[in-house]
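seq:
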Amino acid sequence: MDLDDSDVDEKSSKEEPLEVGFDEKTYEQALRANPKRLAMVQKRAGVIETILDRAELDSADGIKKAWETLNKEIDTKFPKPYAISDQYEANQVVAHPSFGIGFVNAILTPTKVEIIFESGIKRLVCNKN
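struct:
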């Protein structure tokens, strides 16, 4: 399913969440087409950072509690679809086809990112062309 800029109504009060199967181009178009959505994504990043700063990520229980808190507190309606070729930023919400919704905890290297999923912390390859 492809969207173009005309498919996203800037004045729409009800925003449709992006499906996990959407590509990066569609995600970026949706953000550019709707400034309110972009502002929401940026604000959400600050909340994620605050929650992760207080989390105890050195134990399985701490990781699970952090993910549950993030999932409860953060609007996960517009996650960035995960793709190995994409670049990620700390505190983004990501939709992975196998692991589900995750929250970017750290950028480990230019080609490796650490994401907290419900099943635990995963280190994934990114920014590969």
